[in-house]
Design a protein that fits this description.
acyltransferase activity, transferring groups other than amino-acyl groups; 39% helix; Acetyltransferase; Trichothecene_AcTrans; 6-stranded mixed sheet; single chain; Aminopeptidase; 204 residues; alpha+beta
C-alpha cells in the first residue's frame, strides 16, 4: 500500500473508469453503452485530476500497476478556478449533449441538501479494478483516508447510487443519512455518514 503516491492522472482515471462503468449513476448519465467506458473515464478523470492536485488520492499497487483508488476532498481544499478547463458542466455537455446534460445536472443538484453543513471529509470515489475485486483492496485503500479524517476530527460523508456497496460501507462505520431519487426513471442516491469518533478496528 502506498498513500498518496506519485500516481498519474491516466493511471487513476483508468481504474476509476473501469470500476464505475456499470454504476447506476454512470449508466443513467451516459446511456450509450458503446461509448460509456470512455465517457465515464473522462468524466471521473476530471475530478481525479483535482484530487491529485490537492494531494488527496490514495492508491494500491500490485506489480507496479494501480489497482485500487480512493479520492478525497477536505474542508480546506482550494476551489478550482472558474478559468480551469474543462469545466464540469462543459465536459458533461460535450459528452452527452446539452439536453441530457441539463437533465443530469438537475438530478445531481438534488444531492445538495444531503451534504452536511459541518466540516467533513468527503470520500468522493472508491474503486477497485474489476480484475482485482474480492481481495480486500477497497478496505486497504480506504484506510489511510480514514486515519487522516480521524486525526483531524472529521466525520466522513459519501454518496452512492450502487446498492450493492452499501453493506460494505455499513461494515466500515457508515450509516445512511439520506436518500433522493435523482430523476424520474433515474437512480436513487444514498448519502452516508461516518462519525469522526468511529473506530478503525474491525472494519473490513
Amino acid at each position: 500500500m502506498t498513500s498518496r503516491p506519485p500516481a498519474t492522472a491516466p493511471e487513476v482515471r483508468t481504474v476509476l473508469g473501469r470500476a464505475y462503468v456499470d454504476d447506476p449513476l454512470m449508466a443513467w448519465a451516459f446511456p450509450d453503452e458503446a461509448t460509456r467506458l470512455d465517457a465515464v473515464a473522462a468524466w471521473v478523470g476530471l475530478f481525479a485530476e483535482r484530487a491529485l492536485e490537492a494531494g488527496h488520492v490514495d492508491v494500491v499497487r500490485r506489480e507496479g500497476a494501480v489497482v485500487a483508488v480512493a479520492t478525497w476532498r477536505l474542508p480546506d481544499d482550494p476551489v478550482p478556478s472558474a478559468r480551469t478547463l474543462p469545466s464540469v458542466p462543459g465536459l458533461l455537455t460535450a459528452l452527452v449533449g446539452a439536453g441530457h446534460a441539463t437533465v443530469v445536472g438537475a438530478g445531481l443538484a438534488r444531492m445538495r441538501p444531503l451534504v452536511p453543513s459541518r466540516p467533513h471529509a468527503y470520500l468522493h470515489m472508491l474503486a477497485v479494478d474489476p480484475e482485482h475485486r474480492g481481495r480486500g483492496l477497497a478496505r486497504e485503500v480506504l484506510g489511510h483516508g480514514l486515519v487522516r479524517a480521524r486525526e483531524r476530527g472529521l466525520g466522513v460523508h459519501l454518496e452512492t447510487t450502487n446498492p450493492s456497496v452499501v453493506p460494505f460501507y455499513e461494515r466500515n462505520g457508515w450509516s445512511a443519512s439520506g436518500r433522493v431519487l435523482l430523476a424520474d426513471g433515474g437512480p436513487e442516491l444514498v448519502a452516508m455518514w461516518r462519525p469522526a469518533e468511529a473506530g478503525l478496528s474491525g472494519a473490513r
